[in-house]
């Protein structure tokens, strides 16, 4: 298919941001892969290998963690922006997995010289802290994401470009490792990380990375100016955003659309359409409040057969950690917050097929909070934890929607459910996903064809 030109200029590209509107795992990878037919480049701008984006193409499954979900299309260049925290050993592991499937990665992957590096001590700190927190843990992916972002904000991080200044690299590493090893051994009952091994390993990985490293911000501007389209691929989801999510049960980056600019080095005028991905229900992996939850693995008393049904039918296990995901009804009040924070232009509703077997479907349309009714998710874990869901109830359609590719072929009750959601949030549903495979998709408005 052709690459569509921007609406307002025949000479510049049209850029779309794909954002998760829930707690991650909305199906971003599938949708990004589908849309990359229309783009020259796909850009990751935040997060790291805590992400797990699943692509199913002709029945074959690929799980991507750091590498953008455009990699399965040979014409697409994939970019890792400065806002990503990059673990070089994890990246090479992922590259090797893709190369074993005959996917050419290294000639199509560009890495920002300003991306922050994740070191073994970040991973050790993340895991040791979680152990120490015990029952109070966040439930992180244990990939060192939080500690690496902490070093960035504290201005002591090492970045990709520092790999090519070995003396500077060694001196900063020695100093920061001394500090982190003190915390690991004196405070977290953990073991110290060896300086020389860390240095040698990182510099060796840096040499392998070098051909892919560059000024990604300038490269993206060149693609855009040449009239080609880009896709900015969010990781995690709005409700895990470090500012806007259920703090402190969040990840350590801004996952919202606005961060596509800071995390890739592009200006806000370069973003033209924000596509919000939402499941037809909700899931969450890790701890933290979840008002419309149907199943709480930590509390058997709260187990609900419908929650178990959604988890089983939707195969709700973490793509990175394999942990079971908590499940619940779609939360429109949370979706409204996501739409507001991201400036969402259109929604893509995924996993509609998972609701096929249900007799009754509920939709959380607001909350009762401290004796009042509210229609939009408030900020912070404490207050969200006190929100009691208010539901609207719908009859289920009780027939298969799996693989349906046209709106008219959806059962009327499914159409009604979707139309009610669009009405409540005031944003159109541009796409619907009816199965994990690339082709199991209904298009109503193409984000690249406005
Ligand atoms: P991401 O992190 O947002 O990319 O999502 P994940 O890949 O972690 O999780 C989404 C899961 O749902 C994956 O296993 C996908 O293959 C699957 N999936 C995506 N869209 C659909 C859909 O419409 N129906 C079904 N049944 N599965 C889907
Ligand atoms: P994708 O991109 C779902 C969650 C973790 C934990 C919290 C903090 O596949 O949607 P971290 O390791 O980031 O410090 O963990 O964030 N989390 C995700 N949950 N999908 C993800 O990514 C996630 N990335 C992090 O479970 O609750
Ligand atoms: Mg995922």
Can you describe this structure?
This protein is 30% helix and 20% strand. With 450 residues, the chain is α/β, with parallel strands linked by helices. The strands form four sheets. It has a ten-stranded mixed beta sheet with strand order 9-7-5-2-10-1-11-14-18-19, sandwiched between helices. Strands 12, 13, 15, 16 and 17 form a five-stranded mixed beta sheet that branches. Strand 15 and strand 16 form a beta hairpin. Helix 3 (120-133) packs across helix 4 (145-153) and helix 3 (120-133) runs parallel beside helix 5. The protein is globular and about 65 Å long. Bound molecules: guanosine-5'-diphosphate, 6-O-phosphoryl inosine monophosphate and magnesium ion (MG). Residues 24-25, 51-53, 319 line the site of magnesium ion. Guanosine-5'-diphosphate binds at residues 20, 24-30, 52-54, 56, 315, 319, 350-351, 353-354, 433-436.
Question: What topology emerges from the helices and strands here?
Answer:
Blueprint: E1 15-20, H1 28-35, E2 41-44, E3 53-57, E4 60-64, E5 77-80, E6 85-86, H2 88-100, E7 109-112, E8 116-117, H3 120-133, H4 145-153, H5 166-187, H6 195-209, E9 213-214, H7 216-225, E10 230-233, H8 259-264, E11 273-279, E12 281-284, H9 305-313, E13 326-331, H10 332-342, E14 346-350, E15 360-369, E16 372-374, H11 381-385, E17 388-395, H12 412-425, E18 429-433, E19 441-443
Parallel strand pairs: 1-10, 1-11, 2-5, 2-10, 5-7, 6-8, 7-9, 11-14, 13-15, 14-18
Antiparallel strand pairs: 3-4, 12-13, 15-16, 15-17, 18-19
The structure holds guanosine-5'-diphosphate, 6-O-phosphoryl inosine monophosphate (IMO) and magnesium ion (MG).
Magnesium ion is lined by residues 24-25, 51-53, 319.
């Amino acid at each position: 298919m052709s690459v569509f030109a921007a609406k307002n200029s025949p000479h510049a590209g049209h850029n779309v941001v794909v954002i998760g509107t829930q707690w991650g795992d909305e199906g971003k990878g599938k949708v990004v892969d589908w849309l990359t037919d229309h783009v020259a480049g796909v850009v990751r701008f935040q997060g790291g290998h805590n992400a797990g984006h699943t692509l199913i193409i002709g029945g074959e499954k690929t799980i991507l963690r750091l590498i953008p979900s455009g990699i399965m299309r040979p014409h697409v260049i994939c970019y890792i922006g400065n806002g990503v925290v990059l673990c070089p050993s994890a990246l090479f592991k992922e590259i090797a997995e893709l190369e074993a499937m005959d996917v050419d990665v290294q000639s199509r992957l560009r890495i920002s010289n300003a991306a922050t590096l994740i070191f073994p001590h970040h991973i050790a700190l993340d895991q040791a802290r979680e152990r120490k927190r015990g029952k109070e843990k966040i439930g992180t992916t244990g990939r060192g994401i939080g500690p690496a972002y902490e070093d960035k904000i504290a201005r002591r991080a090492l970045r990709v470009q520092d790999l090519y200044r070995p003396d500077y690299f060694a001196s900063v590493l020695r100093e920061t490792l001394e500090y982190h090893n003190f915390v690991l051994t004196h405070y977290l009952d953990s073991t110290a990380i060896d300086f020389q091994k860390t240095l040698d390993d990182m510099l060796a990985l840096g040499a392998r990375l070098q051909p892919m490293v560059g000024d990604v911000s300038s490269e993206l501007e060149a693609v855009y100016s040449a009239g080609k389209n880009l896709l900015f691929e969010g990781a995690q989801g709005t409700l895990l955003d470090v500012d806007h999510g259920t703090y402190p049960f969040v990840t350590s980056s801004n996952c919202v659309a606005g961060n596509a600019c800071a995390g890739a080095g592009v200006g806000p005028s370069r973003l033209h359409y924000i596509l919000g991905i939402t499941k037809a229900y909700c899931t969450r992996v890790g701890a933290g409040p979840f008002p419309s939850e149907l199943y709480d693995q930590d509390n058997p008393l709260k187990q609900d057969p419908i929650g178990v049904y959604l988890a089983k039918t939707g195969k709700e296990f973490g793509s990175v950690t394999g942990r079971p995901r908590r499940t619940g009804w779609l939360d429109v009040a949370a979706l409204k917050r996501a739409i507001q924070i991201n400036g969402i232009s259109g929604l893509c509703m995924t996993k509609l097929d998972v609701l096929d077997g249900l007799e009754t479907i509920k939709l959380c349309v607001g909350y009762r909070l401290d004796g009042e009714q509210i229609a939009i998710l408030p900020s912070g874990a404490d207050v969200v934890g006190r929100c009691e869901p208010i539901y609207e109830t719908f009859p289920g359609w009780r027939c298969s929607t799996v693989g349906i590719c046209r709106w008219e072929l959806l059962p009327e009750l499914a159409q009604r459910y979707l139309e009610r959601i669009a009405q409540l949030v005031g944003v159109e549903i541009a796409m619907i996903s009816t199965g994990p495979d690339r082709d199991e998709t209904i298009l109503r408005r193409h984000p690249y064809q406005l």
